[in-house]
Design brief:
By secondary structure, the protein is mostly helical. The protein contains eight helices and three strands; from the N terminus they run ααααβααββαα.
Length: 138
């Protein structure tokens, strides 16, 4: 992806061209580069799917789950689940371990667990009051 043409940023240029150089100057060289941003976007893009979020949430509640149990828990076909797990595995979000014919999946690291927990908390905090009341009544 191309996010515009690259212009070398310097403190000198900032002092002349920026509206608030005292705020921008210290940030030069610290802002995420386009390639790094693309990697983050790829992760969030992968997480922007309700089925994959449900898979990750289920895995966050257990140390690991086999494909059969995970499919049953989420009401998914094993082939559909396997496709989603493959995408998550390729992006290093989950990892698998084979025990004979059974394959177990787990979250790859604490970053994924924290990211998911933060997303769940954020969405719960910002849910419209009507939705929060409906959830409390259940």
């Amino acid at each position: 992806m191309n996010y515009g043409s690259y212009m070398e940023l310097t403190v000198e240029r900032c002092a002349v061209e920026c509206l608030h150089p005292q705020h921008v100057g210290p940030l030069i060289g610290k802002v995420i580069r386009a390639r790094e941003a693309e990697a983050v976007v790829a992760t969030f893009d992968l997480l922007a799917d309700p089925t994959r979020v449900r898979i990750l949430h289920a895995l966050s509640l257990a140390a690991e789950l086999c494909v059969c149990d995970l499919a049953w828990l989420l009401g998914l076909s094993q082939s559909g689940l396997s496709h989603q797990l493959r995408l998550l595995r390729e992006r290093r979000i989950v990892e698998r371990q084979r025990a004979g014919r059974v394959v177990y999946y787990r979250l790859r690291d604490r970053h994924v667990r924290r990211l998911l927990a933060d997303g769940l908390r954020h969405s719960a905090e910002h849910a419209p009051a009507r939705e929060r009341r409906r959830g409390e009544a259940s």
